[in-house]
Structure formats: C-alpha cells, structure tokens
Amino acid sequence: MGRAFEFRKERKFKRWAKMAVQFTRLGKEIVMAVKDGGSNPDANSRLRTAMQNAKAVNMPKHTVEAAIKRATNKDESNYEEIVYEGYAPHGIAILIETATDNTNRTVANVRSYFNKTNGTLGKTGSLDFIFSRKSVFRFDPGEMEIDELELELIDAGLEDLYVEVDETGKDIGVIHTSFEDFGKMQKALEEKGIPVISAKLERIAESTSEVTEEQAADVFKLIDKLEEDDDVQAVYHNMAE
C-alpha cells in the first residue's frame, strides 16, 4: 500500500491522541474571551462561542469552569494572537494561527518546523491572496428544509450553505458568512433555535494545489509538527483533498 498509506494511517492514530491538545487550545480561547469581555457568557458572545465549541468536543464542564476561573485571576497572563505564513514542500501554502505568552519561543518553534521539513516561513500578509477569513457555523440539520433555511438566513449575511458528512456518517450543516457577519449570523441562529455545534472564524483557501500522495505525506509532516505545538491554535493549507 506504500509509504503514503502508512503515513495517513499514522495520522489517524495521532488524531485520536490530540484530544488533550484540543482541550488546551479551547482553554486558551476561553481565557482570552474572559480577559476580553468578562466571565458572563450571556454578555460575552466570544466566551459563549468558546463554551459552545468546548461542548462540541466533549470538553468536561469542570475543565471549562476551571479555565474561566483561571482567567479571572489577575496574575493569569493573557495570550497574544499571532499569525504565521509560509510554504510547505511542493509549494503548498500554510497559514498558522497561534496564541502565546512567549512570542520568542513561538516564532523559534514555528521556524524550526519549516526548516526541518524543507519548508519556507514567509512574511505576514504574503498569503492574503490565497486565504480569506470566513465565519463558519456547523449545526445539526435534523429534518430542516435546507433550501428554505438558506432563504431565511440571507439577511444575516449567508454566503454559502451545504451539508457534509462527519467521521461518524452523520449529516452536518455548514454555513459560511463573511468575517464581519459572525455576530449577525450567530444571533440569527440563536433566535431561530437552530442547534449550533460549533462556530469559528476559519481561513478558507480560495484556490487549491494538486499533489500526489507521496507529496501530501511530505506536507503532512510539517502540518503534524505545527499541530502538536501547544502555542498553535489552528493550521490551514491549500492542498487539494
């Protein structure tokens, strides 16, 4: 089956081991949300969203509460959000969102990952023509009429609405809006009582690059190193599926 198959299988097992890292990232997001707008989720939409995303990945309630409590401590340092951009092997664009309390450590680590995998770290803004920032909402469509829902959400800034299948075979509704319309769409979904699974600001590749399975394995080596770093919140690429 080849090296690429083995590499993909290895990534699957690694994904199962990333739950703790995922909790760490959500914990940081909760801390930043509380520092930004207070500990009351009813009055802090960013915190409300972070708690919603934590619930979506089965983050324990006591872990969420501990993060909120920790954030209210004045001695708890805040995190600086920094975006890094570059190219993996075979010309694949990579964009990394980080949240760090030590920028020197973070940039040194990110640079080393690129160097070790024959990638190139670029300048901030160098990939603006490839990635656009979108608001992405995922929800349980249930028995909803998607075409009808699409018409109802146009005024809230709807740009795209489709259904995808998750790893368990369940249908998941996906909504795209502009970065600026995040709050408007979030409010519209809440008012309609639509069960939102997650709500995030994501980087969407406007164009993709085709690679072979062997080349994809090279790119995933860099992506894996980045995703394993505690300072990294999200990694995006323009490699075609």
Blueprint of the fold:
Layout: H1 2-16, H2 19-37, H3 45-56, H4 61-71, E1 80-87, E2 93-100, H5 103-116, E3 120-121, E4 131-139, H6 146-152, E5 158-165, E6 171-178, H7 182-191, E7 196-205, H8 213-227, E8 232-237
Antiparallel strand pairs: 1-2, 1-3, 2-8, 4-6, 4-7, 5-6
Helix pairs in contact: 1-8, 2-3, 2-4
Describe the structure.
- The chain is of the alpha+beta class and 241 residues long.
- The protein folds into 3 domains: 3-72, Integrase, N-terminal zinc-binding domain (Arc Repressor Mutant, subunit A, Orthogonal Bundle); 80-128 and 206-237, 2-Layer Sandwich (Alpha-Beta Plaits); 131-204, Alpha-Beta Plaits (2-Layer Sandwich), CATH 3.30.70.980.
- 43% of the residues lie in helices and 24% in strands.
- The chain contains 8 helices and 8 strands, in the order ααααββαββαββαβαβ.
- The strands form 2 sheets. The chain has a 4-stranded antiparallel β-sheet.
- Strand 1 (80-87) and strand 2 form a beta hairpin.
- It is globular.
- It starts with a helix and ends with a strand.
- The mean pLDDT is 90.
- GO terms for molecular function: DNA binding.
- One of its GO terms (biological process) is regulation of DNA-templated transcription.
- It comes from Daejeonella rubra.
- Belongs to the TACO1 family.
- Residues 79-239 form the TACO1/YebC-like second and third domain.
